[in-house]
Design a protein that fits this description.
- Strand 2, helix 3 (66-76) and strand 3 form a beta-alpha-beta unit.
- The chain has six helices and nine strands, in the order H-E-H-E-H-E-E-H-E-E-E-H-E-E-H.
- The relative contact order is 0.15.
- 24% of the residues lie in helices and 21% in strands.
- It is α/β, with parallel strands linked by helices and 233 residues long.
- The protein is globular and about 55 Å long.
- The chain binds S-adenosylmethionine.
- The site of S-adenosylmethionine has 26 residues, from loops.
- Residues 32, 36, 38-40, 60-64, 66, 88-90, 93-96, 110-112, 119, 124-127 line the site of S-adenosylmethionine.
Length: 233
């Protein structure tokens, strides 16, 4: 299937409802770099932007630049361009130590899958934390900075996947969901099918349990004071 930007931009629009299961078997090649390990297709971000209509978007772990490219292409035809900021440790921005530069209606973050894919040897790189509890603490600190950079009413979208290693299942989703409250109000959990992972090329003798073929986009909302008073609806 030929995935073109024009097809993608017109096949999803603000009238399409945001749904809780998504699957993009053919990566849209215009956005980010499919050869950057752990990269994601840009269409989930596109759907979030078309649904929530943020005026500003940030991505503090932009990797190959998928979110930057989606917003760039949306802005080409928009009379009201979306303000975008994105960076990454490999570009000199360290979310463990630095605040985001401003406030945003939508903060998207796609952190490393613990240490499954090592991005660098920098000790601030979340993918270098070998002890899960230390990774979890670092992730929590990073997510807290993202929440702090939300405008009132803004959304934090966190793309994470669970991990199974040597038979041990580590549900990252549980640890992120446990941060409800400090990251705002939980509003959605979107299940995203995973395609073309490097592990797909491996032949598994026989695994005892279900192979993980999905990840989650967890969406929190920073509710406004008045909404809080009404129970946050
Ligand atoms: C899963 S990748 C993001 C991939 C991206 N969504 C894409 O489509 O290309 C995670 C990124 O987190 C970055 N990272 C790890 N620790 C970081 C930190 N402390 N501050 C900022 N970025 C960090 C890595 O360099 C890596 O690019």
């Amino acid at each position: 299937m030929n995935v073109s930007i024009a097809n993608v931009l017109t096949s999803t629009n603000s009238d399409s409802p945001l749904v809780s299961i998504v699957s993009f078997p053919d990566r849209c090649p215009a956005w980010g770099d499919g050869s950057y390990r752990g990269n994601c297709d840009g269409r989930l971000l596109l759907q979030l932007v078309q649904h929530y209509q943020p005026r500003s978007v940030a991505d503090p772990m932009l990797g190959s630049g998928t979110t930057r490219d989606v917003i760039r292409d949306l802005n080409r035809t928009s009379a009201n361009p979306i303000q975008y900021w994105g960076s990454d440790l490999r570009l000199g921005f360290n979310l463990l130590m630095q605040d985001l530069p401003g406030v945003f209606d939508l903060v998207w973050i796609h952190p490393p899958y613990w240490d499954i894919i090592r991005y660098s040897k920098d000790p601030s790189d979340l993918s270098t934390f070998e002890i899960y509890e230390e990774f979890r603490a670092a992730l929590r600190a990073c997510l807290g900075r993202c929440f702090a950079a939300l405008t009132p009413g803004g959304r934090l979208a966190i793309l994470v996947g669970d991990i199974r290693r040597n038979g041990t299942y580590t549900p990252l989703i549980r640890d992120v969901l446990n941060l409800e409250g400090e990251l705002g109000q939980l509003r959605s959990i979107i299940i995203k099918a995973q395609h073309k992972c490097r592990s797909d090329a491996k032949t598994y003798a026989r695994i005892e349990d279900a192979r993980i073929m999905h990840e989650y986009c967890i969406i929190f909302k920073k509710v406004r004071e008045a909404e809080h008073a009404r129970g946050g609806r």
